[in-house]
Structures are given as structure tokens and as C-alpha cells.
Amino acid sequence: MEDILSTIERYKDQLYRFVLRNVWDRSMADDVFASAVLAAYENRDQYIPGTNFRAWMFKILANKCFIANRETQRTQDRVEEEDAELLIVNEKDTSLYFIGNSKEFLECCGEEVYKAFQQLSTAQRTCILLKDVEGFSYKEIADILGIPVATVMTHLSRGRAVLRRELLEYAQKNGFLRKRPKIMFRQNAAEPETCGSAAL
Amino acid sequence: MTDEEKKEIFWTYLHGKKFASEFPEHLPVVTEEKNSYSDEVPLEQAWKEILKRPVSCPTSTWELALSKVQTHRNTLRKKNFIKKMIWLSVPMAAMLVLFFYTMAIQHETLETPKLSDIEHIIFTASEFNPPSVTTIGEVRAFLEQMALPVALDPSDDFDGVHSPYRIVGARADSYFDEQLIQLFFECDGMPAGLLIVKNGGLAAREIGNAVADGTVGATRSVGGVLVATLGTGAPHKLIHIVNDNWPELQPSVESTVEPTEAVYELAEGENNPEPSFEVL
User: Fold this and answer.
1) Is B68's CB within 8 Å of A116's CB?
2) What does pTM read for this prediction?
3) Which of A108, A129, A153 to mutate to test the interface with B (most CBs of B within 10 A)?
4) Nearest Cα residue in chain A from B51
């Protein structure tokens, strides 16, 4: 008993962070985390020593988070109209560019990130947390969640699109992004006027 | 490949993590478009940095987890104990049941020698055990000493002259710790015997069975004893020579009471062949 619990204790901060970012409610996060630890203890015989303990533990945590958020559809990501529009619109907007430094932006937009993150589905949140925060590979995430790699990529793409949209709006509103001005080039009278853009 | 997958591959390249190992085949394609997405990289980095901010697991949360584990262990321990007790008690109960069953069977199937076997043993010359006493006086005294309270008819000499029966002997025996008395007579040259046993015991039950199969001719309850005739030549009326209470004889008065023919007369059908055994 002491072995498995002492191993969990080594990673408890990371594991708790994953749960908290997923369920977003402190008291629920406490219950989910505690029941995940109990589940890990009950199934300790299934863990093979020497294999990826973090992946095994995150698998249990992800299941508990899905149950807590009452989401069972993790293999199929429904294409909502909003997401469909986002996919079409979210082509590279060459008229925007980033000004200021990212550090300043970082210091300001913490709450915005959390707010935007809460809008994602549990599957999208879980994939982004496992990929961008915990550093798992696509294959490892697919094994953890029990879904194909392509589905992991879909969740990541859509989740990031939502985050990007929300943060772009915020950055633009707060002056971190500006539109590139259009520059007109006068050429030969025979040729039509062309528009170009150049960053100032 | 879908557009989403393509985008995801590209962003992975921008993040620079594990791309070379995961998507080496896409490297030539993505490098061309890298610059066009350079503006959005800070946004990606922003949310990664924010989401990565360290969070401490509260002590109370960790203790809650440990208490759940401890509760589970206690419950499991109780369940295992109950399971163990059931596992132990089942074979013990089975052994107890088997033990009592065996005892009951043994009691039922104990070899009880048949009364006919006793009769055979008594009247076969080669296996004949001598009676303890042989004369009528000895037999009367013998009976007085026995725990089975019976006596021979005091008015009869059993000498075979004045009486249809001649006493040969008597001896005591036991049948499963029950005392029984065997009286041997000669009746018109035929061996005859009386078996006197305690009423209601095992021997009495065997006598009852023997009556059913014809081995014993007649039985009679006298007080607390059962009297039965033995031997094919034994007259049924022989059972009346034994009683638990005889009227006292008047020594100065000759008995004028004639023996009741109904008691001593041989039953119809009985004959007088030569005796077939020797008294040792």
C-alpha cells in the first residue's frame, strides 16, 4: 500500500492541477482527486512497475473527470455550428499582427485563458492539458483516453481554435493586436492598381 | 488527412516539441508556412504558460484521499475475515454433519446377532456351553440371584416324570449388556428352552422379530420380563412355568390342585421324538 501511495504523493501536485483545470470547481476537484487516488489503490495490481506511472495515473484521473463532468462522448466530437464556422473563419488572418511582448500579454490574460478554457469540452480540455501542459505525445494521449490518434488531433485542433479565438478577441480589444495597414502601389498606367500589405 | 489534422500537425511543428520524432514526413511542408503563423505563436505560448502554472495539492485533499483508502482497507479486512470464517466453518460443519451421520448409521447398522443364531448356538452339541447349574434346586437358587425377578413354578419338580418337562440346566448370558437367562429343558425327548429377558430392551425386540419369522413359538410378558420359547420342540405352554409371583405352598397340606392340563399338556401337533443332543 505504501509503495503506490508514496509514488502518487510524488506527483500529487501535477495530478491535482490536471483535475482542477478539468473540473474547475475546488470542492469537486478535491472529491475527484481523492476518488482517483482510491481507484489507483484498488487497481494497484494492474500497474506494472517500471512502466509509465504518470500515463497510468492520468488515465484514472481522466476517467474520473469525465464522470464528474458527466461527459461520456469522448470519441466523437460533435461538430457544432459554432465550431464549423470557426474552422472556416480561422484561416490565417494576415491583416493582424502582434505588438508588445508576450510577457506583458501573459501577465494580463490569465483570467481570460481560464475563462476560455472552461468553454471547451472535457475531451478538448483533457487533450490540451495532456499535450501542452503534461507533455505527452499523441500516441500516449490516445492510449490514455482510449481513442484513436486522429481523434486526439481533432480535439486538440478544435480546442485550440476556441482558445485562439477568445484570446485573439481579448488581445485585439486590449491593444495587443493591430490590423496591418494596406499599402497601395502605383505601377504602370497600363497595369491595374494592386494592394499590398506590409508590416509597420 | 483532414484540415484539422493538418492544422494540428502544423501547430505541433510551431511548438517545436517532438515534431521531428512524431511527424518527420511533414517537415518539408510545414517549414514553408512557419513565418505566416508567427503572430499567433505568442497566443499559443500564453495559454500554455498559464495552464502550466504550478498548483499545490492542499493537505486536506491529500488527507481526504488517504482516509478513503484507509476506510476501503478496513472494509476489505472485515469482508476477508467474514469470508475466511465462512470458508472455515463450511468444512467444520460438514465434518460435524458427517460425524453425526456416521454415528447414526453405525447405531442403525450394528450387527445384532439374530435370536435364531443364539438358538442354534445353544442347541448345537459341538458348541454347547454347559449350563451354570443343572439340578432343579440349583436352578431355583440360580434364578433367585438373578436381576430378572422370576421363579419357576414351585409346585413342579421338572423331573420329567411328574412333569412333562425335565430341567436340564440354566445359565446366564448377556445380549448387548442386557442380562438374559436361558433355561434348558427336555420335553418328550425334544430339546426345549426358555429365554428370559428384560422387557422393552434390545433382546426383547429381537424376540419380537423372531416371533414374526417363526423362530420363536411363543412369548409372554411377566412383570418386567419377557419369556420366550426356544427350540422347534418347545411347547408353547412352556412359557407358563415362569412367573414373577407364585402363591406360597402350604407345606402341611398336600397340594390338591391338579396341574392344569391346559398349561402342561402338550399342544396339538407336538410329537415325542428321541432327543437329538447330549447333555454334557
Assistant:
1) no
2) 0.50
3) A153
4) A133
Following DSSP, what letter does each residue of A99-160 receive, concatenated? Answer: -S-HHHHHHH-HHHHHHHHHTS-HHHHHHHIIIIIS---HHHHHHHHTS-HHHHHHHHHHHH
Residues 6 or more apart in contact with residue B103 via CB below 8 angstroms: none
User: How far apart are alpha carbons B155 and A195 in whole angstroms?
Assistant: 162
pLDDT single digits (tens) B24-48 = 666 666 555 555 555 566 667 777 8
Q: Give which of A102, A114, A162, A172 to mutate to test B binding, by max B Cβ within 10 Å.
A: A102
Please report residues of B whose CB lies closer than 8 A to that of A92. 36-37, 40
Contact A125, A196 (CB under 8 A): no
**Which residue in B has a C-alpha nearest to residue A94's C-alpha?**
B36
Chain B residues close to A114, C-beta within 8 Å: 50
Structure confidence by residue, pLDDT tens digits, A21-43: 999 888 899 999 999 999 999 99
Q: What is the DSSP string of B177-203?
A: TEEEEEEEEEETTEEEEEEEEETTSHH
- Strands annotated E in chain B: 151-152, 165-175, 178-187, 190-198, 219-222, 225-230, 242-243
Q: Which of B49, B55, B68 sits opposite A35 (nearest CB)?
A: B68
Q: Give the 3-state secondary structure percentages of chain B, helix then strand then coil, rounded to 5.
A: 50, 15, 35
Angstroms from B88 CA to nearest CA on chain A: 26
